[in-house]
Predict the 3D structure of the following.
Amino acid sequence: MSKQKSIDLAAQEFVNRHKKGHLNSDHIEKVYGSVAGYLRNHGSDRGDRGLQDIEIASWNHKDGWTDTVEWFEDTYQIGYYRLPIEERVTSEDHTPELNFNPDFDSCLDHIEELRAEGYCDISMHEVSEGEFVSEIRIEDYIDGFGEVV
C-alpha cells in the first residue's frame, strides 16, 4: 500500500475546513485540475525542506476562524559555506547557507554560480515529504566539480 502524499492530505483538509458552498470546486477542477493543483499554484513557500502553506480566511472557514493548511513539496536542498573549513572561526562561519528549489536543472545552475563566486563545500540533497532522501553526486552532473584547483 502506497503512502498518501502530504499535498493530497492537505487538499482534503483544505476542502473539509471550508464552509459549505464557499469553495468553487468546479472552477478549481477546470483551471487547476484538482485541489492539489490549486494548492501548488497558490501556496506560500516556507523555505524549509519544501514546506508550503495556504491560509483559509475566517469568512470561508467552517468554524469562522483563520486557519492554515500545510504540506511538503518535493525539492532539492543546496548547502554551502562562505569560507573554506580552515578559515572558519565564528559559529556563523560554521553555519551553512541553505537554499531549497524544486527544479533540478536550476539547482545545478545555482551550484555553478556559487562555485564561480568562491563558495565552499557545496552539497545537494533530494528532499521528499520534508525528509532527506539522498545526496546528489554533483560531480556526476557538473564537469570538474570537486577537483582541487
In short: The beta strands are 44-45, 51-56, 67-72, 75-81, 97-101, 120-128, 131-135. Residues 6-72 form one domain. The helical segments are 6-16, 25-32, 35-42, 104-116. Residues 10 and 71 are 6 Å apart (CA to CA).
